[in-house]
Amino acid sequence: MFKYVVLCFVLINVLIFIIVFKKPQKKQKQNKYDCAIVCGFPANNDGSPSSIMKSRVEKAIELYRHNKINYIIFSGGKVHNTYEEAAIMEKYAISLGLDKKIIIKENKAISTYHNLLYCTKIMNEHNGFIQIENAYKVCYEMINEHPDIQALYVSWDRPALLAIKALKALNRTDIAVFTTDLDFEIAEEMNQGFVKGLSTQRPYDQGKAAALAVAKSLVSDNVPKYIGVQPYVVHEKQLKRAWKDIFFEALPEELGEKVTVHR
């Protein structure tokens, strides 16, 4: 009888756990993120990075080299010994060839809770993190601080448009902008001479390649592990042709009337 009572108790607790702690939905919807947070782990007694610390650093570097993140935050203070975890992780990452400019250190955290607390503060303080809307402020302040800048590369069209807005506010129409992805607004800015060039995706060709891969998977086991479509490089002198090649339609009349060649 006692065994049955214990068994019922265990089953009830398992059921409650399943109901209350549901499996989280996968949140990764972007192809690239602002940064990765690497939580610290105690170093060896001689100050060298421990195996677990190494594995965390190596994974972060792997994400960076696969173009998944822009920065790495190493977070960890002096917890289990006299060695600062963030500093040791930084040193190890640099020894693996990571550029120091990619690294941000947080050296006060003594727990996972503090890792998140202090790193959130760092991300909020770095204007380039979290929100695309910060692109205007970042560009405005950067050009004011470094007026000798002659050109900017801004990832993706949305932040590029905000950067251009900041350049216009500063009356710095002499600064060339390069970005990624073509749309109507970017084409307008290219006509006006702000955007000098860009690399864009090819949505029609991407859809076609994906459809062919799906069809192949239905009749064969030889399915490619990934699908790649060569990006299209666009510059102002061939905008009309590029628009037709990418979207398989003529350049909109509103843009066609404005197309000019800038020297």
Question: Could you walk me through the main structural features you see in this protein, from its secondary elements to its overall organization?
Answer:
This protein has 263 residues and is an alpha/beta fold. 46% of the residues lie in helices and 14% in strands. The protein starts with a helix and ends in a 7-residue tail after the last helix.
- Largest sheet descriptor: 4 strands, mixed
Helix share, percent: 40-55%
Shape designation? globular
Q: Tell me, rounded to a whole number, the average pLDDT.
A: 82
Q: What strand order characterises the main sheet? A: 4-5-6-7
| Elements, N to C (H/E) | HEHEHEHHEHEHEHEHH
The beta-strand count equals 7
How many distinct helices? 10
Low-confidence stretches: none
SS content category: alpha/beta
Global Rg: 25 Å
